[in-house]
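User: Just a sanity check before I run the rest of the batch. Below are the structure tokens for the first item. I only need the designed sequence back.
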């Protein structure tokens, strides 16, 4: 008898061992398909973890990764009470629930209640299959496998990421954003109950299509929570009276250009944390859209705002409307290479100050000069004679800037910017940089320009901008300029008059002083304004992404007002001047300067520009025979910029044989069309030579 019992025990042990071994082999050979857990939406976040932009998965689903810490604990309590009360204690299969469901099914001869745990539901989401008895048994096996591989918190987080909520919404975050327009961190009783109810029948109770069914399902959850003591009577009545949302809200789309840029740079990342402040981003976009309404249809606006300490980018607007095809809205104008106009002049002055070639009170020549075959002219065509370097920079005069660049050397200037982390772009045919660099004959992005001005605000130290929270491995950069020159430049730019609309301090909510510079490129293609305080630097670009001519657009008139409004959105901060003046700053008027700094002398190769132009006068814009689409039919026609090359100044402009008002010593003129149709534009120079263009305005 004892021998038989012993044999039975041994046989039973061997059988159990065989079953366990078979189960172990099966588990190793057929592991659960947990790789699907990696198939989630890429999410780009602001500095506080708020969604700037989310992307659908390859299957087209909104499936946002969820963490338990990001979900209202109330929702988690509701979920576990309603779906899986013993979630924390069972091994993936709830034997009590299975027994109860089987007994009820036998007693009522139909399915009364289910026995699916959250782990089993996750198994079904990972490996969808028809709802049959065999599939249910397979889910139980998969649930045991999942529990052996994942912690309870990880299982719950995965369920919160993949649970179906109707249509292409998956996971509690996607559902909360779509139905409530917010993250599920703080939910009302009614909202939490709806999010618990929807995965039970996501297509038949989704509130955007079946609001009555959705309310009924939600109220069932609420009544159960009331019966379990999780919601008191007063709160229950209020929650039951709450309407359910009847439409889906749009997903966040803030800083879309930056989001696209970062996802291209980090294609495998699923959560990308940025330095953006979404509140500032949205407020700036409202300002930009208001100014956009006054621009022609083909123009757009880009803005970049940076916190100087650490160079953290706080707002990034690549264009005023991401979906405006006519304005090439998806082109990122923060990174686009454009002509900076006069915006690089402060850095030429700074290099001259560093090399003791000039001082802010040095007298500069603003007279007609020729540098070899290059004869620059001021924007307004006039000369001011002797003028201090400080006044010349504030007035953005061209000839003093070119004279300084001629002294320090264009190549050395370009190399200095490059060593500081901002290389300039040149046409492929350009052999070496030339003097036109001073007037915008070079390419730079808004990002590069803002970097340079942020360096000035930081006493000349060079540091790249940071747009995400990933650690930087960028090498150390050479300083852009000395603290002394940064002080000189800041003091000069602080005294630059604000744009006309901001001359009265009462027009500004935040009247902190701003050191700023504007720029306008040839043909009014690009209007720039870049300014800084001690804490922040902001850059603004206005223009047409396709690079075509604009009608009289200038940095001071079009970009600077946006810059000043942008600074009004920031906290009041200290002046851009440092608290302590650098020790080597020379605070003196011209008479007190060392003799070599009182007057700037051009190098011997530069000579007065007394040579008359031998090139025949030509009209470079508008081109003869062109058709100009200036505005839609229902809108008034904007001013048209006329541009001439060659000829001897002064110039005289005529349209259809009638003279128009113009500044004779400038090669540009503004004409306001009085209607649509064909016009003939004529220009004559001092010697009586003329050129004409016949164009059609529509």
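Assistant: Here's the designed sequence for the first item:
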């Amino acid at each position: 008898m004892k021998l038989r019992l012993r044999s039975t025990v041994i046989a039973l042990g061997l059988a159990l061992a065989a079953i366990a071994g078979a189960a172990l082999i099966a588990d190793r050979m057929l592991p659960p398909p947990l790789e699907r857990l990696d198939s989630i939406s890429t999410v780009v976040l602001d500095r506080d973890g708020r969604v700037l932009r989310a992307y659908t998965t390859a299957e087209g689903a909104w499936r946002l990764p969820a963490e338990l810490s990001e979900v209202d604990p109330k929702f988690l309590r509701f979920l576990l009470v309603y779906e899986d009360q013993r979630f924390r204690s069972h091994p993936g299969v709830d034997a009590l629930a299975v027994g109860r469901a089987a007994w009820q099914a036998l007693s009522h001869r139909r399915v009364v209640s289910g026995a699916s745990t959250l782990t089993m539901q996750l198994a079904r989401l990972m490996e969808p299959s028809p709802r049959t008895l065999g599939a249910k048994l397979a889910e139980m096996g998969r649930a045991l496998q999942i529990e052996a591989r994942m912690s309870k918190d990880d299982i719950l987080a995965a369920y919160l990421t993949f649970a179906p909520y109707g249509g292409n919404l998956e996971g509690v975050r996607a559902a909360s954003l779509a139905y409530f327009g917010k993250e599920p961190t703080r939910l009302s009783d009614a909202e939490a109950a709806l999010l618990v109810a929807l995965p039970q029948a996501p297509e038949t109770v989704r509130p955007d299509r079946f609001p009555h069914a959705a309310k009924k399902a939600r109220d069932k959850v609420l009544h159960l929570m009331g019966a379990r003591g999780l919601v008191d009577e007063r709160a229950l009545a209020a929650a039951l009276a709450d309407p359910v949302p009847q439409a889906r809200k749009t997903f966040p789309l803030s800083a879309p250009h930056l989001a696209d840029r970062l996802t291209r740079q980090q294609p495998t990342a699923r959560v990308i944390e940025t330095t953006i402040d979404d509140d500032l981003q949205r407020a700036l976009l409202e300002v930009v859209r208001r100014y956009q309404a006054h621009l022609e249809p083909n123009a757009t606006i880009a803005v970049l705002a940076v916190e100087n300490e650490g160079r953290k980018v706080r707002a990034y607007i690549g264009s005023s409307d991401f979906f405006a095809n006519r304005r090439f809205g998806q082109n990122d104008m923060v990174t686009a290479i454009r002509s900076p106009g006069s915006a690089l002049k402060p850095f030429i002055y700074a290099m001259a100050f560093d090399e003791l070639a000039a001082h802010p009170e040095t007298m500069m020549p603003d007279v007609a000069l020729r540098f070899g075959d290059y004869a620059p002219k001021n924007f307004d065509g006039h000369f001011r004679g002797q003028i201090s370097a400080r006044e010349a920079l504030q007035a953005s005069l061209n000839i003093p800037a070119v004279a300084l660049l001629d002294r320090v050397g264009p190549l050395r200037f370009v190399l200095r910017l490059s060593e500081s982390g901002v290389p300039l772009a040149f046409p492929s045919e350009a052999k070496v940089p030339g003097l036109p660099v001073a007037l915008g004959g070079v390419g730079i992005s808004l990002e590069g320009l803002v970097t340079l001005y942020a360096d000035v605000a930081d006493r000349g130290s060079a540091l790249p901008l940071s747009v995400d929270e990933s650690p930087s491995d960028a090498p150390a950069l050479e300083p852009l300029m000395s603290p002394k020159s940064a002080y000189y430049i800041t003091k000069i730019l602080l005294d630059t008059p604000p744009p006309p609309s901001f001359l009265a301090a009462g027009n500004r909510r935040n009247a902190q002083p701003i050191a700023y510079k504007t720029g306008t490129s040839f043909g009014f293609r690009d209007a720039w304004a870049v300014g800084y305080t001690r804490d922040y630097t902001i850059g603004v670009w206005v223009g047409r992404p396709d690079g075509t001519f604009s009608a009289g657009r200038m940095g001071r008139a079009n970009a600077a007002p946006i810059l000043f409004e942008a600074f009004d959105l920031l906290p009041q901060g200290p002046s851009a001047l440092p608290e302590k003046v650098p020790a080597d700053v020379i605070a003196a008027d011209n008479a007190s300067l060392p003799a070599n700094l009182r007057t700037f002398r051009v190098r011997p190769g530069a000579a007065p520009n007394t040579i008359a132009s031998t090139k025949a006068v030509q009209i470079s814009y508008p081109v003869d025979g062109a058709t100009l689409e200036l505005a839609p039919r229902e809108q008034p026609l904007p001013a048209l910029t006329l541009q001439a090359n060659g000829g001897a100044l002064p110039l005289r402009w005529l349209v259809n044989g009638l003279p128009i008002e113009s500044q004779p010593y400038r090669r540009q003129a503004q004409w306001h069309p009085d209607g649509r149709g064909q016009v003939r534009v004529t220009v004559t120079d001092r010697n009586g030579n003329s050129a004409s263009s016949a164009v059609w305005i529509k």
